[in-house]
Design a protein that fits this description.
Number of domains: 2
Number of helices: 13
Strand content: 15-25%
Structural class: alpha/beta
Number of strands: 14
Radius of gyration: 21 Å
CATH superfamily of the largest domain: Aldolase class I
Shape: elongated
Bound molecules: iron/sulfur cluster
CATH architecture of the largest domain: Alpha-Beta Barrel
Distance between the termini: 26 Å
Length: about 350
């Protein structure tokens, strides 16, 4: 399989050009074709000589590929499936990853995947149940942006699809660099949010190296209870994650939020709200309460609307901005990992 050009920096593309017998300045032209003009074939790159395009095509791939499936929700949410080189063990063939486009007013947010499956084993997550099948390359991550139908209209991105982005930090970081560089897509980092369960060493690198927003999946303020749902708590306790987060400035351009999926009878009462308030004290942040999409063989249902409202009021009365996230795309199984899970089973 040929290596993809997508994800490479202009400096790296210069080396590619030279290795194909072309002048160094072709590297800059390649970056423009890939990231500004979003070329889908070498043929499109008309200011590179025909011989040059042929030499490039003989050794390299652009890295774009069309989705292999798409489902549209009645609320406008669209879920795309892409084939990935990482094999799905239960399908005996190519695995599939998902990208979900969520429209909201003028916004078009793309929820992107960073891995095929996931190693982290959170018990409430369908992606976690599928096991880990491989890391996506930066090209496979960027292809999600380039190959959805709404590509030209995308306004925001959340790394909140399949996988733990910080468990594939090098490729995710490379994709974010392309997204935010002036020679790349030129997006402001404020348009991007990375969501993590808190892989501390890579979280530190992310906070040092990028200016994007951060979302931390918290889900329970009590260590033992969190551990019962999220094995990561054993390696990187949420208290240590928060100690790290507190060392960075989230009062200006960059924001931190905490994701809190509501499970009836597990984490949705006054005791949990109060513990969460104590845990987040002094941090300028927002909490997003999320309705749980029920999955098979799992003991908890989502909390009632009344319990969610009461939880939100308690947080807001204590100075924490709190929103209840609207469910989107329920009719197309838009919760993380659900459609690709179905696809793999087929
Ligand atoms: Fe992985 Fe995120 Fe699912 Fe946990 S919730 S298993 S980190 S994809």
């Amino acid at each position: 399989m040929k290596e993809a050009l997508l994800g490479k920096t202009p400096e790296e593309l210069k080396a590619v050009a030279v290795s194909c017998g072309l002048k160094p300045f072709v590297g800059k032209q390649l970056a423009e074709w890939l990231y500004v003009h979003r070329a889908r074939s070498f043929e499109d790159m008309t200011n590179i000589s025909k011989a040059g395009r042929e030499a490039l095509a003989a050794s390299w791939d652009i890295g774009v590929s069309e989705p292999v499936g798409c489902a549209s929700s009645s609320d406008g949410t669209r879920k795309y499936l892409f084939a990935t080189a990482a094999p799905a063990q239960d399908a005996g063939g190519l695995g599939a990853i998902e990208a979900v486009m969520i429209p909201e007013g003028e916004r078009r947010t793309l929820c992107v995947s960073s891995q095929a499956g996931c190693k982290m084993g959170c018990r409430f997550c369908m992606t976690g149940r599928q096991g880990f099948h491989g890391n996506l390359s930066a090209a496979e991550i960027l292809n999600q942006f380039l190959s959805v139908e709404e590509s030209a209209e995308l306004s925001n991105a959340v790394f909140m699809g399949m996988g733990e982005p910080l468990d594939n930090y090098e490729e995710v970081s490379r994709a974010i660099t392309v997204l935010t560089a002036p020679w790349g897509f030129g997006w402001s980092p404020k348009r991007i949010t990375l969501s993590t369960i808190g892989v501390i060493p890579k979280l530190k690198r992310f906070l040092d190296e990028h200016r994007c927003h951060l979302a931390v999946s918290l889900h329970n303020p009590f260590p033992e209870e969190r551990l019962s749902m999220m094995p990561v708590q054993g390696a990187f306790p949420i208290g240590d994650v928060l100690d790290l987060v507190r060392r960075y400035d989230f009062s200006g351009q960059r924001r931190v939020s905490f994701e809190y999926t509501m499970f009836a009878g597990f984490n949705d009462d006054k005791r949990h709200a109060d513990a969460l308030i104590r845990l987040l004290r002094g941090l300028e942040c927002r909490v997003n309460l999320i309705r749980f999409h029920k999955i098979p063989d799992f003991e908890y249902d989502t909390s009632s609307d009344a319990a969610m409202e009461a939880f939100r009021s308690r947080l807001e009365n204590n100075g924490i901005i709190c929103t209840i996230r609207a469910s989107r795309g329920e009719d197309i199984l838009a919760a993380c990992g659900m459609l690709a899970g179905r696809h793999s089973q087929r």
